[in-house]
Amino acid sequence: MPEEEQRDSKLKQLGRSVKEFLYGMAGHDMTRFALKTRGSMEHLFILITMGDLLGIPILPPYYSLRLLPYVVPQISTWKRRMLRERDLTDALA
Amino acid sequence: MNSILVLILGAVVIYVGYFIYARRIDQNVIQPDAKKATPAKMFMDGVDFTPASRNVLFGYQFKSIAALGPITGPIIAVQWGWFPALLWIILGTFFIGWVQDYGAMMMGVRREGDSMGALSYKLISPRARNILMIFLYFYLLLIMGSFGNAVGKTLMINPKVPLGMIAVVLMGILAGQMTYKWKQDIIFTTAVTVALTFLGIWLSTTAPVAKFFNGLYGLPESPVWFLGNTQAQVIGTLLVIVFCYLGSVMPIWSFAQPINYISFWIVSLGVLGGVLGMLIWRPGMGDFPAFTKFTTASGPLWPMLFVTIACGAISGWHSLVSSSGTARQLEAETDAMPVGGGAMFMEMFFAIVAFLTATAAFGGFQGYQDAGGAGKALAVFSGGLANFLSHIGIPKDFGTAYGSVFLTIMALTIMQLVIRFMRVASAELVGEKFPAMKNVHVGTIVALILTLVFVWVIPWLTIWSAFGAANQLMAGLALMLIALWAMSEGRKHTWALYPAAFMIVTTLAALLYLAYDNFFVKLPKAATAQAGIAAVLVGVIALVLVIAAAILVYDGWKALRKPQEKKAPAKA
Lengths: 93, 572
Description:
The structure holds two protein chains of two kinds.
Chain A: H1 3-26, H2 28-50, H3 61-71, H4 75-83, H5 88-91
Chain B: H1 3-30, H2 39-42, H3 54-65, H4 69-77, H5 82-110, H6 116-123, H7 126-155, H8 162-181, H9 186-204, H10 207-217, E1 224-226, E2 229-230, H11 231-249, H12 256-281, E3 295-296, E4 299-300, H13 301-308, H14 316-326, H15 336-359, H16 365-370, H17 377-389, H18 396-430, H19 440-457, H20 460-488, H21 494-525, H22 529-567
Helix pairs in contact in B: 1-5, 1-15, 3-14, 3-15, 4-15, 4-17, 5-14, 5-15, 5-20, 5-21, 6-7, 6-20, 7-11, 7-18, 7-19, 7-20, 7-22, 8-9, 8-12, 8-18, 9-18, 11-18, 11-19, 12-17, 12-18, 13-20, 13-21, 14-20, 15-17, 17-18, 18-19, 20-21, 20-22, 21-22
């Protein structure tokens, strides 16, 4: 690769790093919170509809079974999150 | 000494500390593997565990750890002279600070993203987690008390500050609406709201606004309203309390988050302008003494200096952020050093800039004392920043108001977060016995009443020392956990164990000194009911923290001995 192109790509990389750093300081928290809110709502929905999987029957199984195909991709992460022990130090971060 | 020399010294320490010592521990002891799956990848749920690039996380980690601590600590600590303060900032970061931040992060990564509570349960003992929770509640309360005192009783009493702070809040709310409700472009939203915030800060320096707040506050020496506080201090703290209440009960997207976002720009531009002004001005320290005396208003140099400068050298708060916050987002194990270690070294640089606002911006020791000294550390910073900003053409009057708003929002962004945690903590700790505590408003109001008592009753230097001691003790306990974890993996652990021993001994000594000073010196001399209550409060909290820490250290010591006993050869 010619020297000029190499310098350009390094400059671009530096620019991208600075941009990411600024985003990390200014906006990453907001994005994380939006994701957390969405995730929590989804997990709450799965708990209501698929509670049987954790031993909490809330909805009649008929409806759970009809919704099951849509929820399958999220079941493993949902179970892990619901059953994970939490305390104040989890909330702090 | 010239300020530029101090900055160069800081840069050299960063180079040697990060590229030689820290990298050696990273590569030879911890041996991170770039190919190993991190919890962010293994458990990716798009909620708690989500991988992010190292540059993003570096910014996130730095923003999360740098608050009022690295600014206030060095400014108070120079009362012992500039040399011990600078030495602790540099050596503390070099040998202890990055060890804790990086160690807590790696520990989190290798232990499947466990939080500090879960780690203390698994590595120390089951009761360790419960004690940690009680310890944390007091720690959070001390953060509220010290930050609330600094803002409500020092910064807000300047009639040129409240409007600036109100402008930040209003523009934050506007930014939230523009982003989430009206779906406006983020660059446009940022430009409009940040520009309007600056307009608000400028308006706060104008004569009619200052006159209005002067009228509201009354004369400085006049009416003592409540518990020895002036009218201005009572109004200032009440404004802070209202802000924290709204921050705790309002939806986070509409209040806390957009205000934090606007604050980021205000603070970053202030730091950038201040450093630029310093580089142009290149002031010296004048007659600022290298060492003043061993015992000052804050107490003896050892152990009090080491708890006065917290975040600039080492801080327990960082371990909480590093373990369950950043560790769950690392894309690769090899990112832990640049993110955890790098952010800590950068914070050291930030602390050095704050140190220079006290030592170099006023031309000498007398100037520092005239600006407020250790007793009004935040006023010193805003005055120093204004002096630096004046060298890039910003009027001093505006610079002082800007510096004060800068510090106010730095403190308030943390306070509104802490009050949320206190609400969650009280619901968790006593919610079963007192169901009312599970109510958002009740939990918040109880936490705010406790905060008000701390702010109105306890003097500034005392509460800062108590907060610093709790913070540093948390750091000592985190380092102990890191040493235990390293040992459990069969790695060298002295790099974390020796700093842990130093921090635990020093902070326990500081807490015992605080208990002694309050029970046996301040309480008998207390001339008012307020002084008596303050002495008892601080003394009791210091003792509770000492007992909690003693149990944790005892359990930790037993856990440390366990594997060694197993390894000892059996007798024939």
